[in-house]
Amino acid sequence: MPASAVDEYFQFLRFPSISTDPERAADVTACAAWLGEKLTAIGLHTEVHATARHPIVIARNDHQAGRLTVMIYGHYDVQPVDPVELWTSPPFEPRVENGVVFARGATDNKGQIFAHILGIEEALREGELPVNLILLIEGEEEIGSANLATFLSSHREELRCDLVAISDTGMVAPGVPTLTYGLRGIAALEVRVTGSAMDLHSGIYGGAVANPATAIARLIACLHHSDGRVAVPGFYDGIPVLAQWEREAWAALPFGDAEMAAVTGAPELVGEPGFTSLERTWARPTIEVNGIGGGFQGTGTKTVIPREAFAKLTCRLVPGQQPHDVVEKVKAHLSSHTPRGVRVEFLGGHGAEPYYTDPHSKFGQAAQKALQEAFPGRPLALIREGGSIPIVNTFKEVLGVETLLLGLALPDCRAHAPDENFPLENFHAGIRLNRALLAALAAAK
Ligand code: BES
Ligand code: ZN
Predict the structure, then answer these.
(1) Of all atoms in ligand 1, which is nearest to the CA of residue 144?
(2) Which neighbouring-strand residues pair with 100?
(3) Residue 123 confidence (pLDDT) above 90
(4) What are 5-45's pLDDT values in tens digits?
(5) Which of 168, 278, 412 should be mutated for ligand 1, with most atoms under 8 A from CB?
(6) Is residue 388 in contact with ligand 1, taking CB distance under 6 Å?
(7) Dihedrals φ, ψ of 96, to 5°?
(8) 409: number of CA atoms within 13 Å, CB side?
(9) What residues sit around ligand 2, an ion, with C-beta below 5 angstroms?
(10) Among 137, 292, 335, 354, who pairs with 57 as Cys (CB 3.0-4.6 Å)?
């Protein structure tokens, strides 16, 4: 690999392409344009499509009749950097320490998708790709892929393919080739509680009116039983019992409760009774509070009754659950627990269904072979994961194809958190993986 490859990866990382932040919209667009130029430079036919929000980058080689068509999907948008003060170095100034790259997006997903791009570049330099390739890289994955779903429907003919491959998931441990066959879905919901018409002096009015911050705390508390189970009626309806073979296979993986405790730094692991942490995160649904606010947040004290308070929630969903249905159940539960003296309103968010596919299908086996080649000498892990990639079900519905999830992220990659990082070793393995994958898929056709 030329030395410039890492330089280019760093250029990619320097764009603050935070999709959720309207003030970063120009940076997101600039990142898409840079990517488009890179893909053109390696010899692909590239289009950068504007959407109602962030651009979609598409690139393809010269397609030939009779060959397999593979779509490789990734995203160039990243999560916000807050709390920025907890980063060891600025999030958009990539730095290498002991062979590990630190930057927002280093793993999720710029490092992983750029490794694929470099694999393709290497292959094109040597000659032809063994497959018809469609590279689709979007800028809204971290906010639910709403415009990509619309784009897929309106461009389904041009995007027709035999399968999709994604590197945007994890490896169970360093060096362990990992194929993911299940992802949790997601349903986001913001809860707003309002009370008095304006902020009030807490001495003059305290005792006579309800406090929205207290109300939001009560509402959040009513979501779970004290043992960790979700208390929303019907929340667990329709979820199949976890298969014994999965429980046994996951128990044998080189990542379990001890590693989860170490990687999170949490004083104790807690969750739904009767399940290990892998089962809780991969195969059981949850409700998490992603943010809570209201009232005085500054230094010192301020004696105030805030007029409003909010909580941002996401539910992670497993097969058997539907985002819309779960959101309705959560709303009904919160409405029936709303304390007197305040009003509650809900703002809808993105939603995505859970995903489950067969890792032993013809293409699944080819992916296993490619992973073994990229990470030689270690037994392959077949896993589900707790994160979500909203578009995978849309690929299935609109294009009629399954997705292979070949992850390169390590458990301590700190995705979505300060000091996100990606080892250069995994970056190089990703390049090998791309080469091996396209060859194995072509052979499996
Ligand atoms: N790469 C992640 C998804 C992921 C992470 C899958 C780890 C499996 C293991 C992706 O970029 C992501 O973070 N997705 C969001 C989607 C959401 C904002 C709609 C997520 O899961 O929170
Ligand atoms: Zn992410």
Answers:
(1) 19
(2) 97, 423
(3) yes
(4) 999 999 999 999 999 999 999 999 999 999 999 999 999 99
(5) 168
(6) yes
(7) -110, 130
(8) 24
(9) 108
(10) 137
Q: Mutation test of ligand 1: which of 142, 148, 287, 318 has the most ligand atoms closer than 8 Å to its C-beta?
A: 142
Q: How many CB atoms lie within 10 A of CB 22?
A: 9
Which pLDDT tens digit goes with each residue over 375-414? 999 999 999 999 999 999 999 999 999 999 999 999 999 9
What residues contact residue 263 under an 8 Å CB cut-off, 6+ apart?
A: 411, 412
Q: Which residue has the tokens 């269904």?
A: 353
Beta carbon of 186 within 6 Å of any ligand 1 atom:
yes
Q: How far is the CA of 79 from the centre of ligand 1 (A)?
A: 10
Ligand 1 contact, 389 CB (< 6 A): yes
Per-residue pLDDT reduced to its tens digit, 131-170:
999 999 999 999 999 999 999 999 999 999 999 999 999 9
Domains and CATH numbers, the chain: 3-183+354-444 (3.40.630.10), 185-251+270-352 (3.30.70.360)
Spatial contact of 289 and 313, defined as CB atoms under 8 Å apart: yes
Ligand 1 atom closest to Cα of residue 390: 19
Peptide bond into 83 cis (omega under 30): yes
pLDDT per position as a tens digit, 164-194: 999 999 999 999 999 999 999 999 999 999 9
Distances (CA, A) of 323 to 88, 144, 223, 415: 37, 12, 17, 24
Q: Which atom of ligand 1 is nearest to the CA of 388?
A: 21
Is residue 180 classed as helix, strand or coil in its secondary structure? strand
**Could you tell me the distance, in angstroms and rounded to a whole number, from the CA of residue 72 to the centre of ligand 1?**
17
Determine the Cα angle at 97 with ends 91 and 98, to 5°: 150
- What pLDDT does residue 348 have? 86
Counting atoms of ligand 1 from 1, which one is nearest the CA of 180? 8
